[in-house]
Amino acid sequence: MAHSRLRYLALTFVVFSAFLGYQAVTADQSVHAETVDDGPYPGNTLISIQSYGLNGKLIEVNEKNEVVWEYDPPNSRVFDAEQIENGNILVGVTTKLPPEKCPAEQLQVNSKQCIQAKVLELDYETRNVVWNYSWYDEYITHHEVHDVDRLDNGQTAIIDMGNDRAFTVDRSGEITWEWHAENHLGEGTEFRKKYGGPPNPGGERDWTHMNDIDRLRNGNFQISVRNFDVVIEVDPKMNRIVDVVGEPGNYSVMREQHNPDRLERWNTLLVADSQNDRVVELNASTGEVVWQYGGKKLLHWPRDADRLPNGNTLIVDTFNNRVLEINPDGEVVWRYEGVMMPYTADRLTVPENSTDTVSGADFESRFSDSDAATGLLQQAEAYASFVFPMWVRLPELFTLAGMVVVGLWLVVELAVVAYRDYAG
């Protein structure tokens, strides 16, 4: 009886394995794109792709949905990118390095690796690095450089997640301004007394997850502090927080957001409200919702949103591995999907400060969420992408689960048979 059960289990495991192989061969791993006539705002789109591993890259897609430019650094994740005034590309890249290429002081936590966080200016035609600023850190998770911006004075604003700081550097690499979260969000600070927030765990653990910096017209810096669920405004002359949108733990405003854009003409904040699975436009004074689009049936963990001059909104829908453009009625007029964990998207023809021209106050809000069970399955599918190839979705996960169950059962049965044979 036991040997018959072993044969059935072994056969079942083979069947599951063969079916997974079939799923792998037949999986659609191509890039899909769709455009509605006269729908999208014209121009090419620059898309940064973090990737689930170390295959990050930067691509430019034309209006025919063809990749016309690409930058593919080895062993790296790629984050915020923009085309600057001289036509070059400014991009944040984080590269994992083997220990022999690491400074000794960056091998204290993980002796097998370190990272180099890099801000690169690339010549558009040659892709050669014409300017860079970089530093080393301990490991790649939550230590990447998420946002870089070239300022009007030629300096560069940078968010350093691993060290919980925001700073600016000039062309020579000299730091011209620096803001450390510990001095302004930590224990005993005015912010902490008024708003609270997660305690600093110390060491190399992820505390603030600061992920975005923008220069406002008044000269202040707007900083997204993801793990605090807030967007703050900092006066760089006094290094003081002068405004706060959101509140730690108040998820009705935003939750673990990315890439907020201030629409200063309307005093609103367009936010990729990631953990709430929506893009939301908030009144920057009251935190009230002006417009929203999302819910897990429409978006899953968006991380960038830009308002285009024609009123459309360009959205990076990260866990669905796609970039969308929707019109004011919430209709998808352009999509580009099949890219592994995109981070940002910029329509290259958008003039500077044009995002101030259109408010979402008169747009149609759409929010369609999944039920709890479906939402959990979608979340499991998304997290599985950090471990398995992109083609592994829910059906493939069920096949893998079957293989694991049968495989463990088979191992147990083999152990029992071996013990009986030994004992008998």
List the helices and strands and how they pair.
Elements: H1 2-26, E1 32-35, E2 45-49, E3 57-61, E4 67-71, E5 76-83, E6 89-97, E7 114-122, E8 129-137, E9 148-150, E10 156-160, E11 165-169, E12 175-180, H2 182-185, H3 190-195, E13 210-215, E14 221-225, E15 230-235, E16 240-246, E17 258-263, E18 268-273, E19 278-283, E20 289-294, E21 302-307, E22 313-317, E23 322-326, E24 332-337, E25 342-347, E26 366-367, H4 372-384, H5 394-423
Helix pairs in contact: 1-5
Shape: globular
Beta fraction of the residues? Answer: 35-45%
Largest sheet features: 5 strands, antiparallel
What number is the mean pLDDT? 93
Q: Please, what is the oligomeric state? A: single chain
Largest sheet, spatial ordering of strands: 1-24-23-22-21
Given as residue ranges, the uncertain stretches (5+ residues, pLDDT < 50) are none
Q: From the helix content, strand content and strand pairing, which structural class follows?
A: alpha+beta
Helical amount among residues, as a percent range?
10-25%
Q: What is the count of distinct domains?
A: 2
CATH C-level category of the largest domain: Mainly Beta
